[in-house]
Design a protein that fits this description.
- There is one protein chain.
- The chain is of the alpha/beta class.
- It has 8 helices and 10 strands.
- It has a 7-stranded parallel β-sheet with strand order 1-10-9-6-2-3-5, with helices on both faces. A 3-stranded antiparallel β-sheet has the order 4-8-7.
- Helix 7 links the parallel strand 9 and strand 10.
- Helix 7 packs across helix 8.
- The chain is globular, with a radius of gyration of 17 Å.
- The two termini are about 15 Å apart.
């Protein structure tokens, strides 16, 4: 069941999701959050930082698990997702970093994927799983394909994903070609799933998600239609492009 929330702007979407997270943490201080990287959630994370600094939310007992990590780069690399989470959120709020988990990008990839799988369920599933969406509808690094994986695994990245991520690296050749990611079953296991999207490049993917009841592995986001508590937050510009009227 998809609940679609249309806001006036991207900033308003970020505020809406930040408020959802703050409300959850205030109601359940030791909650478990599934977190996402990428450009989309950054302004939302800034709002969480502001709320924490203003004393409106306390992250000291919160546990987090991230969706994915590149293979082949260490957590100290400025394009690793551990580095991203530290610099965009964890370094600026009162969370215990021992309670945060981002998969290891170095070492035995299969063992690292198995560790991520265990962390998804350790202490219970996520109370809220935050998601972005790729231009081709990919969720985390579950790429559009004939088949999808249920559990954490190593994913070979598509050319479109590599091209989309190339802007973050000095050269396209530096973009990792594989990543460790939660599987779709792991994502759907969360008690609540919240996807935030903006930008006209996401039009086709969001149209497939919210404008029909069809489910296809060629738009992995459509799997969210099977979740009993999924929220999709988009701004008016994207809603208009998709043709969503509410």
């Amino acid at each position: 069941m998809i609940q679609v929330v249309v806001t006036e702007s991207y900033d308003a979407s970020c505020a809406y999701v930040a408020d959802m997270i703050c409300k959850l943490v205030n109601e359940k201080p030791a909650c478990k959050l599934g977190l996402a990287t990428g450009g989309t959630p950054v302004p939302m994370y800034k709002k969480l930082i502001e709320a924490n600094k203003a004393g409106k939310v306390d992250f000291s007992a919160v546990h987090t698990v991230n969706l994915d990590e590149y293979c082949g780069i260490p957590g100290t690399h400025d394009q690793s997702y551990r580095y991203f989470m530290d610099t965009n959120l964890f370094d600026h709020i009162n969370i215990d970093k021992a309670n945060t988990y981002v998969a290891q990008g170095m070492g035995d990839a299969e063992a690292n994927a198995a560790e991520l799988e265990a962390k998804v369920y350790e202490g219970g599933v996520a109370d809220l799983q935050l998601l972005g969406i790729g231009n081709n509808g990919h969720i985390a690094f579950n790429e559009a394909s004939d088949t999808l994986h249920a559990t954490a695994h190593i994913e070979k990245l598509t050319e479109s994903t590599i091209n989309a991520n190339a802007r973050f690296f000095e050269r396209k050749e530096d973009v990792p070609t594989t990543a460790i990611t939660m599987g779709m079953g792991d994502i759907l296991a969360a008690k609540c799933v919240v996807l935030i999207a903006t930008g006209l490049a996401k039009t086709d993917a969001i149209r497939g998600l919210v404008m029909s009841d069809e489910i296809t592995t060629h738009n992995p986001s459509t799997m969210l239609k099977m979740h009993p508590n999924a929220v999709v937050v988009i701004d008016k510009e994207l809603a208009d492009a998709v043709g969503y009227k509410g």
